[in-house]
């Protein structure tokens, strides 16, 4: 089997294979453990029934949309009252309501956001307006 | 017929995933087995295909005359369109790969009343081809955030740039819109232009539908019916680190998206999508126009037995002199 122009073809194929397998050698065979957002803040531990404004699975995937809706309601419609699916009433506020329980931004919000690649340029732009909580460390 | 067949094939593929995951619970099959098989097919098939091409000799130096070739010193050469050096050839190849130059030069001709044959610039295919390929590249690179931990910096900057409009949450990516628009154009072109429709085959429609639904499922997952991206990343990382895990509770939409990608990968080496590698092997793009400086020997050349005039004369010299015929040398 004769390969013509092997001097160009072989390096070209090597470059292709290296680029195509980038994720394989970049991770070096060890998967980083998936994040475990911590739910052990004092406020949550004091709760009798540990329940967020939406069921957990929904909260995991749709919290950003909920926050966006809250923002629209509060900023544009001046409405701060949120009636949850289970009839409970909440004050629509990221800093005063969400962060009251989830006061551990770096161990809660950030763990998943960093893992899922939401950083620097594509960071969730909550904290461009809101003040990030001061965590006592 | 080609359209229906291609569309139904893609829909059948997605339906197969839906039934497989929802009814039969084949999460491991669609999440681990199929991706590995597809990736192996892609890599092996790609290399095999390129080596197959590399085994075919190029019989001629196929010079392209799309610009002034190298000539007398006072004739200005078009060094990028008709290069005679290696550097110029690399330049031409770069223009081709990065900016689709030969597509840019595309013209269309039509009969008009008269009858007159009219030639026109035809840039739409070039524009949408370029938009499609670049948005696909950006989307492809953005997806590295699921396959690499820590996420490389360039992925972040790409995402930042792509999502700079900051519309909605999760933020709208510009390339998502461009991708769908471009794929739609490439499809409509095949349907609307009669000449193109005439030559379009299922192998033209199928990749378009595949890419369209790949994009649509991705967009639905991002903006409308969410899946848990943390679990998705766990699965993706498991695959690329050869410790496959299938976290429970990932929506069926993800498996559809992932399976369409696997089909794309596995289909790649057998299809016209191989132009990814093939563009580098186009003889009209990768051969410098230098046959007047360097002799291109056809590797196919059969070893022909020749009998030169000198040998002929050696054989018949005496007889030629006797007959009074002119000879070049009087004796051996």
Topology:
The complex is a heterodimer of chains A (137) and B (332).
Chain A: H1 6-20, H2 22-26, H3 42-46, H4 56-77, E1 81-83, E2 89-91, H5 94-101, H6 109-115
Chain B: H1 2-23, H2 27-54, H3 86-99, H4 101-104, E1 107-112, E2 116-121, H5 124-142, H6 144-147, H7 153-162, H8 174-192, H9 194-199, H10 202-224, H11 229-240, H12 252-267, H13 275-278, H14 283-286, H15 309-322
Antiparallel strand pairs in B: 1-2
Helix pairs in contact in B: 1-10, 1-12, 2-12, 5-8, 8-10, 10-12
CATH homologous superfamily title of the largest domain in chain B: Transmembrane di-heme cytochromes, Chain C
Poorly predicted runs of chain B:
none
- Tell me the β content of chain B: under 5%
Radius of gyration of chain A (CA) equals 23 Å
Return the CATH class of the largest domain in chain B: Mainly Alpha
Distance between the termini of chain A: 67 Å
Helices and strands of chain B, in N-to-C order?
HHHHEEHHHHHHHHHHH
Question: How much helix, percentage-wise, in residues of chain B?
Answer: 55-70%
Number of strands of chain A: 2
**Main beta-sheet annotation of chain A:** 2 strands, antiparallel
Structure overview:
The model of chain A has no long low-confidence stretch (mean pLDDT 85). By secondary structure, chain A is mainly alpha-helical. Chain A has six helices and two strands, in the order ααααββαα. Chain A is 45% helix and 4% strand. A two-stranded antiparallel sheet of chain A has the order 1-2. By secondary structure, chain B is mainly α. In chain B, strand 1 (107-112) and strand 2 (116-121) form a beta hairpin. Chain B starts with a helix and ends in a 10-residue tail after the last helix. The chains are: A mainly alpha (137), B mainly alpha (332). Chains A and B meet through helix 1, helix 2 and helix 4 of A and helix 2, helix 6, helix 7 and helix 11 of B.
């Amino acid at each position: 089997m004769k390969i013509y122009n092997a001097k160009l073809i072989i390096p070209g194929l090597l470059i292709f294979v290296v680029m195509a397998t980038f994720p394989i050698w970049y991770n070096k065979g060890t998967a980083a453990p998936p994040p475990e957002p911590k739910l052990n803040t004092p406020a949550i531990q004091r709760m009798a029934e540990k329940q967020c404004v939406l069921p957990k699975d929904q909260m995991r995937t749709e919290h950003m949309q909920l926050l966006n809706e809250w923002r629209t309601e509060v900023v544009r419609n001046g409405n701060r009252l949120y009636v949850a699916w289970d009839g409970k009433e909440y004050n629509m506020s990221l800093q005063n309501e969400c962060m009251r329980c989830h006061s551990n931004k770096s161990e809660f919000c950030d763990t998943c956001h960093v893992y899922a690649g939401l950083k620097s340029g594509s960071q969730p732009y909550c904290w461009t307006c809101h003040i990030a909580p001061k965590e006592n460390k | 017929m080609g359209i229906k067949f291609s569309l139904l094939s893609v829909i059948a593929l997605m339906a197969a995933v839906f039934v497989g995951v929802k009814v039969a619970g084949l999460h491991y099959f669609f999440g681990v087995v199929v991706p590995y098989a597809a990736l192996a097919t892609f890599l092996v098939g790609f290399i095999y295909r390129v080596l197959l091409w590399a085994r075919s000799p190029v019989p001629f130096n196929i010079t392209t005359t799309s610009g002034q070739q190298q000539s007398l010193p006072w004739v200005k050469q078009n060094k990028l369109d008709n290069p005679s050096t290696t550097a110029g050839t690399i330049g031409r190849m770069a223009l081709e790969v990065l900016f689709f130059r030969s597509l840019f030069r595309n013209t269309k001709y039509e009969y008009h009343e008269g009858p007159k044959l009219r030639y026109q610039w035809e840039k739409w295919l070039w524009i949408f081809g370029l938009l499609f390929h670049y948005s696909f590249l950006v989307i492809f690179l953005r997806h590295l955030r699921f396959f690499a931990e820590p996420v490389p910096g360039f992925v972040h900057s790409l995402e930042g740039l792509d999502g700079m409009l900051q519309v909605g949450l999760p933020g709208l990516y510009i390339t998502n819109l461009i991708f769908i628009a471009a794929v739609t154009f490439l499809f409509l072109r095949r349907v609307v232009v009669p000449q193109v429709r005439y030559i379009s085959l299922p192998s033209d429609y199928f990749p378009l539908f595949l890419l369209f639904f790949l994009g649509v499922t991705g967009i639905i997952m991002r903006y409308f019916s969410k899946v848990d991206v943390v679990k998705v990343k766990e699965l993706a990382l498991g695959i690329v680190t050869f410790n496959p895990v299938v976290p429970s509770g990932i929506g069926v939409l993800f498996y559809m998206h992932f399976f369409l990608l696997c089909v794309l990968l596995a289909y790649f080496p057998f299809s016209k999508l191989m132009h990814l590698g093939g563009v580098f092997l186009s003889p009209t793009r990768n051969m410098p126009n230098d046959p007047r400086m360097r002799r291109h020997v056809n590797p196919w050349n059969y070893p022909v037995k020749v009998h030169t005039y000198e040998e002929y004369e050696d054989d018949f010299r005496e007889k030629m002199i006797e007959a009074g015929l002119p000879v070049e040398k009087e004796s051996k």
